[in-house]
Task: inverse folding
Protein backbone atom coordinates (compact mmCIF):
# COMPACT_ATOMS: atom_id res chain seq x y z
CA UNK A 1 0.00 0.00 0.00
CA UNK A 2 1.10 3.56 -0.67
CA UNK A 3 0.15 6.50 1.55
CA UNK A 4 0.93 10.14 0.92
CA UNK A 5 0.45 12.34 3.96
CA UNK A 6 1.80 15.87 4.24
CA UNK A 7 5.14 16.03 2.45
CA UNK A 8 6.15 12.40 3.12
CA UNK A 9 5.77 9.35 0.90
CA UNK A 10 5.21 6.02 2.67
CA UNK A 11 5.09 2.42 1.56
CA UNK A 12 3.91 0.67 4.68
CA UNK A 13 3.97 -2.93 3.40
CA UNK A 14 5.27 -3.48 -0.14
CA UNK A 15 5.24 -1.98 -3.62
CA UNK A 16 6.08 -3.99 -6.76
CA UNK A 17 6.36 -2.48 -10.24
CA UNK A 18 6.74 -4.28 -13.53
CA UNK A 19 8.59 -1.30 -14.95
CA UNK A 20 11.05 1.32 -13.78
CA UNK A 21 10.13 2.99 -10.50
CA UNK A 22 10.64 6.57 -9.34
CA UNK A 23 9.68 7.77 -5.87
CA UNK A 24 10.00 11.47 -5.11
CA UNK A 25 9.21 13.05 -1.78
CA UNK A 26 9.26 16.69 -0.70
CA UNK A 27 9.97 15.37 2.81
CA UNK A 28 10.80 11.83 3.90
CA UNK A 29 10.49 8.57 2.00
CA UNK A 30 9.41 5.81 4.44
CA UNK A 31 9.61 2.62 2.43
CA UNK A 32 9.10 -0.84 3.88
CA UNK A 33 9.81 -2.71 0.61
CA UNK A 34 9.94 -1.58 -3.02
CA UNK A 35 10.71 -3.82 -6.02
CA UNK A 36 11.10 -2.97 -9.71
CA UNK A 37 11.12 -6.18 -11.75
CA UNK A 38 12.34 -4.36 -14.90
CA UNK A 39 14.05 -1.02 -15.37
CA UNK A 40 15.74 1.25 -12.87
CA UNK A 41 14.68 2.45 -9.43
CA UNK A 42 15.17 6.04 -8.25
CA UNK A 43 14.29 7.31 -4.79
CA UNK A 44 14.54 11.06 -4.13
CA UNK A 45 14.05 12.69 -0.74
CA UNK A 46 16.53 15.52 -1.01
CA UNK A 47 15.36 17.45 2.06
CA UNK A 48 14.39 14.45 4.21
CA UNK A 49 15.25 10.86 4.98
CA UNK A 50 15.04 7.61 3.06
CA UNK A 51 14.27 4.88 5.59
CA UNK A 52 11.85 2.11 6.39
CA UNK A 53 8.70 2.61 8.38
CA UNK A 54 9.27 3.85 11.92
CA UNK A 55 12.74 2.80 13.06
CA UNK A 56 13.08 0.32 10.20
CA UNK A 57 15.22 0.35 7.07
CA UNK A 58 14.09 0.55 3.45
CA UNK A 59 14.39 -2.68 1.42
CA UNK A 60 14.92 -1.92 -2.26
CA UNK A 61 15.32 -4.13 -5.33
CA UNK A 62 15.75 -3.41 -9.03
CA UNK A 63 15.92 -6.90 -10.46
CA UNK A 64 17.37 -5.89 -13.82
CA UNK A 65 18.33 -2.27 -13.40
CA UNK A 66 20.07 0.38 -11.31
CA UNK A 67 19.15 1.54 -7.82
CA UNK A 68 19.73 5.24 -7.12
CA UNK A 69 18.96 6.81 -3.74
CA UNK A 70 19.29 10.56 -3.19
CA UNK A 71 18.59 11.36 0.43
CA UNK A 72 18.84 14.44 2.60
CA UNK A 73 19.77 13.89 6.24
CA UNK A 74 19.81 10.07 6.16
CA UNK A 75 19.61 7.00 3.95
CA UNK A 76 18.91 3.96 6.15
CA UNK A 77 18.61 0.91 3.94
CA UNK A 78 18.08 -2.74 4.80
CA UNK A 79 18.52 -5.24 1.96
CA UNK A 80 19.37 -3.66 -1.39
CA UNK A 81 19.57 -5.73 -4.57
CA UNK A 82 20.55 -4.21 -7.88
CA UNK A 83 20.74 -5.83 -11.30
CA UNK A 84 23.15 -3.09 -12.30
CA UNK A 85 24.78 -0.22 -10.37
CA UNK A 86 23.93 1.04 -6.89
CA UNK A 87 24.37 4.71 -5.98
CA UNK A 88 23.46 6.19 -2.60
CA UNK A 89 24.08 9.79 -1.49
CA UNK A 90 22.90 11.42 1.73
CA UNK A 91 24.30 13.28 4.71
CA UNK A 92 24.68 9.92 6.50
CA UNK A 93 24.33 6.38 5.13
CA UNK A 94 23.59 3.05 6.79
CA UNK A 95 23.19 -0.05 4.60
CA UNK A 96 22.65 -3.48 6.11
CA UNK A 97 23.15 -5.60 2.97
CA UNK A 98 23.98 -4.76 -0.65
CA UNK A 99 24.02 -7.28 -3.51
CA UNK A 100 25.13 -5.39 -6.60
CA UNK A 101 25.60 -6.67 -10.15
CA UNK A 102 27.60 -3.64 -11.16
CA UNK A 103 29.40 -0.77 -9.43
CA UNK A 104 28.54 0.47 -5.94
CA UNK A 105 28.91 4.04 -4.69
CA UNK A 106 27.99 5.08 -1.14
CA UNK A 107 28.83 8.74 -0.52
CA UNK A 108 27.95 10.49 2.73
CA UNK A 109 28.12 14.27 2.43
CA UNK A 110 28.24 15.25 6.11
CA UNK A 111 28.44 12.33 8.54
CA UNK A 112 29.28 8.63 8.47
CA UNK A 113 28.85 5.79 5.97
CA UNK A 114 28.23 2.23 7.17
CA UNK A 115 27.92 -1.01 5.21
CA UNK A 116 27.35 -4.25 7.09
CA UNK A 117 27.63 -6.66 4.14
CA UNK A 118 28.32 -6.04 0.46
CA UNK A 119 28.78 -8.33 -2.55
CA UNK A 120 29.67 -6.29 -5.63
CA UNK A 121 30.68 -7.46 -9.10
CA UNK A 122 32.13 -4.09 -10.11
CA UNK A 123 34.01 -1.34 -8.31
CA UNK A 124 33.13 -0.30 -4.76
CA UNK A 125 33.39 3.21 -3.29
CA UNK A 126 32.55 4.20 0.27
CA UNK A 127 33.27 7.82 1.16
CA UNK A 128 32.47 10.09 4.10
CA UNK A 129 33.89 13.13 5.91
CA UNK A 130 33.20 11.23 9.13
CA UNK A 131 33.75 7.51 9.68
CA UNK A 132 33.50 4.73 7.10
CA UNK A 133 32.62 1.36 8.63
CA UNK A 134 32.47 -1.97 6.78
CA UNK A 135 31.58 -5.39 8.11
CA UNK A 136 32.22 -7.66 5.11
CA UNK A 137 32.81 -6.35 1.59
CA UNK A 138 33.61 -8.54 -1.43
CA UNK A 139 34.31 -6.46 -4.54
CA UNK A 140 34.95 -7.59 -8.09
CA UNK A 141 36.64 -4.34 -9.10
CA UNK A 142 38.73 -1.79 -7.26
CA UNK A 143 37.53 -1.22 -3.69
CA UNK A 144 38.07 2.25 -2.22
CA UNK A 145 37.30 3.43 1.30
CA UNK A 146 37.88 7.10 2.05
CA UNK A 147 37.12 8.60 5.47
CA UNK A 148 37.85 11.91 7.10
CA UNK A 149 37.59 10.14 10.46
CA UNK A 150 38.19 6.44 11.08
CA UNK A 151 38.03 3.88 8.29
CA UNK A 152 37.33 0.48 9.84
CA UNK A 153 36.57 -2.91 8.34
CA UNK A 154 36.28 -6.49 9.54
CA UNK A 155 36.82 -8.11 6.12
CA UNK A 156 37.52 -6.78 2.63
CA UNK A 157 38.11 -9.24 -0.18
CA UNK A 158 37.44 -9.75 -3.86
CA UNK A 159 34.94 -11.80 -5.83
CA UNK A 160 37.21 -12.67 -8.77
CA UNK A 161 40.54 -14.46 -8.98
CA UNK A 162 42.09 -11.63 -11.04
CA UNK A 163 40.86 -8.94 -8.73
CA UNK A 164 41.78 -5.28 -8.59
CA UNK A 165 43.41 -2.93 -6.13
CA UNK A 166 42.08 -2.19 -2.64
CA UNK A 167 42.70 1.32 -1.30
CA UNK A 168 41.80 2.50 2.19
CA UNK A 169 42.42 6.05 3.42
CA UNK A 170 41.26 7.65 6.65
CA UNK A 171 42.30 9.87 9.48
CA UNK A 172 42.91 6.62 11.36
CA UNK A 173 42.58 3.02 10.17
CA UNK A 174 41.31 0.05 12.18
CA UNK A 175 41.21 -3.04 9.95
CA UNK A 176 40.96 -6.74 10.75
CA UNK A 177 41.51 -8.64 7.48
CA UNK A 178 42.08 -7.56 3.87
CA UNK A 179 42.78 -9.91 0.97
CA UNK A 180 43.60 -8.24 -2.34
CA UNK A 181 44.06 -10.15 -5.58
CA UNK A 182 46.13 -7.17 -6.80
CA UNK A 183 47.73 -4.21 -5.01
CA UNK A 184 46.84 -2.95 -1.55
CA UNK A 185 47.39 0.62 -0.26
CA UNK A 186 46.49 1.72 3.28
CA UNK A 187 47.04 5.25 4.58
CA UNK A 188 46.20 6.99 7.85
CA UNK A 189 46.48 10.75 7.48
CA UNK A 190 45.91 11.91 11.08
CA UNK A 191 46.71 9.05 13.45
CA UNK A 192 47.35 5.32 13.77
CA UNK A 193 47.06 2.51 11.23
CA UNK A 194 46.13 -0.90 12.63
CA UNK A 195 45.76 -4.02 10.49
CA UNK A 196 45.42 -7.59 11.68
CA UNK A 197 46.07 -9.54 8.48
CA UNK A 198 46.75 -8.17 4.99
CA UNK A 199 47.47 -10.16 1.82
CA UNK A 200 48.22 -8.68 -1.60
CA UNK A 201 48.94 -10.34 -4.94
CA UNK A 202 50.72 -7.14 -5.97
CA UNK A 203 52.46 -4.30 -4.20
CA UNK A 204 51.53 -3.54 -0.60
CA UNK A 205 51.96 -0.17 1.09
CA UNK A 206 51.19 1.03 4.61
CA UNK A 207 51.57 4.72 5.44
CA UNK A 208 50.92 7.09 8.31
CA UNK A 209 51.40 10.57 6.89
CA UNK A 210 50.25 12.88 9.68
CA UNK A 211 52.76 15.14 11.38
CA UNK A 212 53.03 16.66 14.85
CA UNK A 213 49.97 15.78 16.93
CA UNK A 214 48.59 13.86 13.93
CA UNK A 215 51.59 11.55 13.58
CA UNK A 216 50.63 7.89 13.85
CA UNK A 217 51.94 4.41 14.49
CA UNK A 218 51.68 1.43 12.17
CA UNK A 219 50.72 -1.85 13.82
CA UNK A 220 50.38 -4.99 11.69
CA UNK A 221 50.16 -8.60 12.85
CA UNK A 222 50.49 -10.44 9.52
CA UNK A 223 51.50 -9.04 6.09
CA UNK A 224 52.01 -11.08 2.90
CA UNK A 225 52.63 -10.27 -0.77
CA UNK A 226 52.35 -13.19 -3.17
CA UNK A 227 53.03 -11.72 -6.63
CA UNK A 228 55.17 -14.31 -8.44
CA UNK A 229 57.61 -11.79 -9.95
CA UNK A 230 57.94 -9.86 -6.70
CA UNK A 231 55.27 -7.70 -5.09
CA UNK A 232 57.01 -5.06 -3.00
CA UNK A 233 56.16 -4.13 0.58
CA UNK A 234 56.60 -0.48 1.57
CA UNK A 235 55.97 0.79 5.09
CA UNK A 236 56.33 4.48 5.99
CA UNK A 237 55.45 5.70 9.47
CA UNK A 238 55.50 9.21 10.86
CA UNK A 239 56.00 7.66 14.30
CA UNK A 240 56.55 3.98 15.29
CA UNK A 241 56.19 0.62 13.52
CA UNK A 242 55.14 -2.64 15.20
CA UNK A 243 55.13 -5.75 13.00
CA UNK A 244 54.52 -9.42 13.58
CA UNK A 245 55.04 -11.66 10.54
CA UNK A 246 55.81 -9.81 7.30
CA UNK A 247 56.53 -11.88 4.18
CA UNK A 248 57.18 -10.10 0.87
CA UNK A 249 57.82 -11.77 -2.46
CA UNK A 250 59.55 -8.59 -3.63
CA UNK A 251 61.69 -6.03 -1.88
CA UNK A 252 60.70 -4.81 1.58
CA UNK A 253 61.36 -1.26 2.74
CA UNK A 254 60.46 0.04 6.19
CA UNK A 255 60.94 3.67 7.27
CA UNK A 256 59.89 5.09 10.63
CA UNK A 257 60.61 8.39 12.32
CA UNK A 258 60.44 6.66 15.69
CA UNK A 259 61.16 3.04 16.57
CA UNK A 260 60.59 -0.12 14.55
CA UNK A 261 59.95 -3.46 16.23
CA UNK A 262 59.42 -6.64 14.21
CA UNK A 263 59.46 -10.34 15.02
CA UNK A 264 59.74 -11.95 11.57
CA UNK A 265 60.69 -10.20 8.31
CA UNK A 266 61.15 -12.23 5.11
CA UNK A 267 61.59 -11.73 1.37
CA UNK A 268 61.20 -14.76 -0.88
CA UNK A 269 62.08 -13.91 -4.53
CA UNK A 270 65.81 -14.11 -5.23
CA UNK A 271 67.45 -10.70 -5.19
CA UNK A 272 64.66 -9.06 -3.18
CA UNK A 273 66.28 -7.22 -0.31
CA UNK A 274 65.16 -5.80 3.03
CA UNK A 275 65.83 -2.21 4.09
CA UNK A 276 64.90 -0.86 7.52
CA UNK A 277 65.57 2.76 8.46
CA UNK A 278 64.29 3.98 11.81
CA UNK A 279 65.01 6.17 14.78
CA UNK A 280 65.77 2.92 16.60
CA UNK A 281 65.12 -0.70 15.72
CA UNK A 282 64.63 -3.99 17.54
CA UNK A 283 64.33 -6.90 15.11
CA UNK A 284 63.99 -10.63 15.71
CA UNK A 285 64.25 -12.99 12.75
CA UNK A 286 65.23 -11.24 9.50
CA UNK A 287 65.66 -13.35 6.34
CA UNK A 288 66.47 -11.44 3.15
CA UNK A 289 66.54 -13.09 -0.29
CA UNK A 290 68.81 -10.26 -1.40
CA UNK A 291 70.73 -7.52 0.36
CA UNK A 292 70.07 -6.44 3.94
CA UNK A 293 70.44 -2.83 5.13
CA UNK A 294 69.49 -1.87 8.69
CA UNK A 295 69.95 1.69 9.98
CA UNK A 296 69.12 3.37 13.30
CA UNK A 297 69.30 7.15 12.97
CA UNK A 298 69.22 8.25 16.59
CA UNK A 299 69.06 5.21 18.84
CA UNK A 300 69.94 1.57 19.28
CA UNK A 301 69.93 -1.10 16.59
CA UNK A 302 69.22 -4.53 18.09
CA UNK A 303 69.04 -7.61 15.87
CA UNK A 304 68.46 -11.20 16.99
CA UNK A 305 69.08 -13.62 14.09
CA UNK A 306 69.48 -12.10 10.64
CA UNK A 307 70.36 -13.62 7.28
CA UNK A 308 71.09 -12.06 3.88
CA UNK A 309 71.53 -13.82 0.53
CA UNK A 310 74.03 -11.16 -0.57
CA UNK A 311 75.41 -8.18 1.36
CA UNK A 312 74.48 -7.08 4.87
CA UNK A 313 75.00 -3.62 6.36
CA UNK A 314 74.05 -2.65 9.90
CA UNK A 315 74.73 0.86 11.16
CA UNK A 316 73.81 3.51 13.71
CA UNK A 317 74.08 7.20 12.87
CA UNK A 318 73.79 9.21 16.08
CA UNK A 319 76.67 9.28 18.58
CA UNK A 320 76.05 6.75 21.31
CA UNK A 321 74.11 4.37 19.09
CA UNK A 322 74.82 0.69 19.54
CA UNK A 323 74.97 -2.14 17.02
Result:
Amino acid sequence: SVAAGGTDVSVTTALTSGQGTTITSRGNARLASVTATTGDMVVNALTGEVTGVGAGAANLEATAGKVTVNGGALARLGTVKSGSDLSVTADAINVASANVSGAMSLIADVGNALLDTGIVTGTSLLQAPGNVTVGNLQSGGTATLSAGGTASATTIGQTTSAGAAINVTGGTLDLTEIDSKAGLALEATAGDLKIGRATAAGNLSLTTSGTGANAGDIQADNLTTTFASGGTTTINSSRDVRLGLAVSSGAMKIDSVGSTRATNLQTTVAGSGITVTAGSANLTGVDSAGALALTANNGALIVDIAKAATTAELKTIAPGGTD
Q: What stands out?
A: The radius of gyration is 24 Å. The chain has no helices and 34 strands. Confidence is low (pLDDT under 50) at residues 1-5. The longest strand covers residues 74-82.
